[in-house]
Predict the 3D structure of the following.
Amino acid sequence: MTPVLAAAAKNTKNAVGRTCNMKTIVEQADPARPAAEVIQKAAGILRAGGLVAFPTETVYGLGGNGLDEEACQKIYLAKGRPSDNPLILHISEREELAQIVREVSPAAKKLMDAFWPGPLTLIFPKTDIVPMRTTGGLDTVAVRFPSHPVARAIIRAAGVPIAAPSANSSGKPSPTRASHVEFDLTGRIDMIVDGGAAEWGLESTIVDVSGEKAMILRPGAVTKEMLEAVVGEIAVDPAILSKPEGEFRPKAPGMKYTHYAPKAEVWLVRGSREAVAACINRLAEAERNTGKVIGVMATAETEGLYHADAVLSLGSRERPEEIGSNLFKTLRKFDFLGMDKVYAEVFPEDGEGMAIMNRLNKAAGYRAIDAEERGEES
Ligand code: TXA
Ligand code: MG
């Protein structure tokens, strides 16, 4: 068996060990026109305080009744999520906002008009019916109005705002397929609704509109440029693209945790195309000689340049949305293939690139190599 196959064979077990003793139902749903039967089953479980994973246009969410403290507690337990990391409430119509939000600023209204339903989450001052367990003790609440027909149908049928973090075990890459959710959470949740691949593949953009000045807390498919076209200049939480240290804490509590991390150690490699390929090939060769299994996360334009145990392409550099939609799936594939280390190319940080580089930096724990400097050293 090759080293890659041997490593993959060890990695086919479910991600979670001990407490997988619940029966998890998996039901298929047509992403455009889901059957009423499946939607009613999911909604019934949610109303009874259970947990249902469902597709959205960003990633799969793990839903529970957002106004029920016990259901929210179950979400934290199923994911192994730290309890100070607040949940996003999902609604199916804009009118549902009034019961959970105290105040809507003019900037918030403009953003809702432009981007809802869609991949934009807004932070508002919360009303008293939203439990502190949902908001991790904060007096603000994150709200998202997804556009995915399956998500909307389930939320509408449940009749309550649905708290839904990404449906992965805490710290792992977010799930963009029902199979990813099954791998992480089977035996820990009541139901998975399989509506095919999530379109965007990266979580929603988060904008805090609870204070005087709007600020991006997490970049996503709705880019800074798109937001600024609607509300003018917008601040970006400095923790988004550099390592949060000391006083310099991210404003979205979840952004401070290790995230999107496969088991392999990920390293970003910066520099010209040629320098990056030469640097990675040299490092990979030396490490493979010591028995390590090495992967490279490349692009359609560069995959032919590398020699490693697994070279996976994220798609074309000409289409950043393709890179974004394949990123988490590819990180999970490296895990499946049992890589010890993965070298990854970097991308420009404008447009969708800001979200891609934010997730890549976190997956790598901010480990990076400058290929040009390394070239000079050798
Ligand atoms: O695309 C998405 O947003 C997906 C799908 C399922 O809708 N959901 C998602 O949720 O990504 P989650 O829990 O994985 O990420 C929520 C992020 C965390 O970083 C959390 O700290 C932040 O939102 N957040 C939630 N409430 C907040 C609040 N009141 N103030 C600041 N940040 C908040
Ligand atoms: Mg998440």
Notes: The longest helix spans residues 273-289. The chain has two domains: 3-240, 265-377. DSSP finds eleven helices and 16 strands in the chain. Residues 3-240 form a domain with the DHBP synthase fold (CATH 3.90.870.10).
